[in-house]
């Protein structure tokens, strides 16, 4: 009887240690998505579209060094498409701009007024400054996710 009780307890403890790492949050974090961004509303095919994917508000949307992923793609017939693979399920935001002069920078004039078209996920706009991160966040919880981004000038 005592041996059975010890056996049951040790089996339960082993099971707890084995399955402790398989919480729903861990399973969720291990899945990845292919993220496609469809950029529309570009006024011409000059230059390129620069896109930045963010998983935290630090640096959003202006400090490219803090972006999770970056890409520069050509414009075809007023649209551009960007694909990022292997993106872990979670919450993200995206910033993009029409880099007409292909200098890799978001050009502004004093006091920070945009000279180039730009777009933020969820169509978020800033009030007297850059758009905030939280309203720009969208969920990535499918194997494929498509996010439309409309450029405004």
Overall number of structural domains: 2
- Low-pLDDT parts are none
Name of the CATH homologous superfamily of the largest domain = Immunoglobulins
Which CATH first-tier class of the largest domain would you pick?
A: Mainly Beta
The residue-averaged pLDDT reads: 88
Bin the helical content: 10-25%
Shape, principal axes of CA atoms: globular
Order of helices and strands: HHEEEEEEEEEE
Distance from N terminus to C terminus (CA atoms, Å) equals 78 Å
What distinguishing features does this structure have?
10 strands; DUF2141; 37% strand; Immunoglobulin-like; alpha+beta; globular; 153 residues; five-stranded antiparallel beta sheet; three-stranded mixed beta sheet; 2 helices; single chain
Task: Give the helices and strands, then pairings.
Elements: H1 2-20, H2 24-30, E1 32-40, E2 48-54, E3 69-73, E4 80-88, E5 90-99, E6 108-109, E7 113-114, E8 118-120, E9 138-140, E10 144-150
Pfam families: DUF2141
InterPro entries: DUF2141 (IPR018673)
